[in-house]
Give the backbone structure.
Amino acid sequence: MTVPLYGFRPVRLELFVSQSEVPPQAADPLGAYIVENQAGFLLRRAHQRHASIFLETMAAHDLTPTQFTALIKVIESGRVTQNRLGRLTAMDPATIQGVARRLVDRDLVSRALDPMDRRTTVLIATDAGIALAARAVVAARAITAATLAPLDDDERIQLTALLRKLG
Amino acid sequence: MTVPLYGFRPVRLELFVSQSEVPPQAADPLGAYIVENQAGFLLRRAHQRHASIFLETMAAHDLTPTQFTALIKVIESGRVTQNRLGRLTAMDPATIQGVARRLVDRDLVSRALDPMDRRTTVLIATDAGIALAARAVVAARAITAATLAPLDDDERIQLTALLRKLG
DNA sequence: GCACGGTCATTCGTGTGCAAATGATCCACC
DNA sequence: GGTGGATCATTTGCACACGAATGACCGTGC
C-alpha cells in the first residue's frame, strides 16, 4: 500500500462561524472552514502521494525526488555551483547541501575547484551519474504518468498549467 | 522574501532522447523530459510556497500546517485516538506522534485514558486549544487566499477539484 | 589598498514524512 | 480460555525543508 487513501469525510466547523472573528463574506454558510478542501491540505496530500509513487517506482535506482532533480540539473548544466543548483531545483542552500553531499558520496556527481572564485566548488556529473540518470528518466516518465493517472488528458494539462501559474 | 521565485528556464534534455531507453511515444520531440514541467516538481514547488505563506501568516499563532490541521480535527472530533487523528489528517503514526506531542506540550490538546481500550490514549482539545483555533482559522482563510492569489476564481475551483481527484 | 556589502558553503535546531521494528493490547475464532 | 492476527502508540534511522548564524571570499567604491 504505497498510497494510503484515508477516508475522511468533510465536517462543518460551525464552531468558527460565529460573527466575531469571521470576515464578512464568511457569513455565507458555504464559507464554513473545511480543512480538507483547503489548497494547503490538498497540496500536502498530493505531494505525499507523488513522493510515495516516486520512491516505489524509483526504488531500483535508489534516488529520491530531490536527488533525481538535482542530478538532472547538474547534467543539464554541465558545471554548476551548489547555490545555483539550489536555485535551479528550488532548494535552499541548507537543503541542497545535503542533497549534493549524498550524490557526491555515491559518485554520481563530483566536485571541482573554481580557480575564479575560491568560495565555490563546482559540481559535475560523473559518467556513472549520467548513466544512472538515463535509466532513471524512464522511471520518471512512469512516475509522472502514475501521479496523474486519476486525471484524463485535458485535466492533466489543466493541472500542470495551474501549478505552473501558482509558481 | 517569503516566496523565493527562482527563475529557472526549461532546457531540453536531449541527452535522454536516444532510441534505446525511451518509450515509443517519446520519439515525439515534445516528449523531451523537462523536470520543471513534471507534476512532482510542480507539486513540490507549490507545496513549498504554501508552507512559506502559512508559516508567515500564522506566525502570530505559532502553528505549523500539520499542527493546525491536527488541532482542527481534534476539535471537530471531540475525542479521537492518535492513529485515527492521523488518518483524518493524512499523517502516518510516526508523524502524528510528534505533532500530537507538540500540541500536548503546549496545552492545546490533552490526553485521556480510554477505559474501553488500554492501548490508546484519547486526544481532546483544551479550552486554550479551541480559543487558539478560533483565531487561527481567520489566518487560515487568508492563507488559502494568498496561496491561490495567482489564479482567478474559475482557476481556483478547477485546481481544488483536480487536487481532490488526485487525492 | 582597504572597507563594506553581498555571495558561497556549511552548520545547528526544529519540524515534517515514512519504513521498520517493538511491546502492549484487542478480538475473533476455535 | 487460549492462540493468533490485527491494531495502537512509540522509537530509530534517514531524508527533506528552512531560518539563523558563521567564516571565507568576491567586487565596488572610496
Notes: Residues 44, 48, 51-52, 55, 81-83, 93-94, 96-97, 117, 119-121 of chain B lie near DNA strand D (CB under 10 Å from a C1'). Residues 1-30 of chain B have pLDDT under 50 and may be disordered.
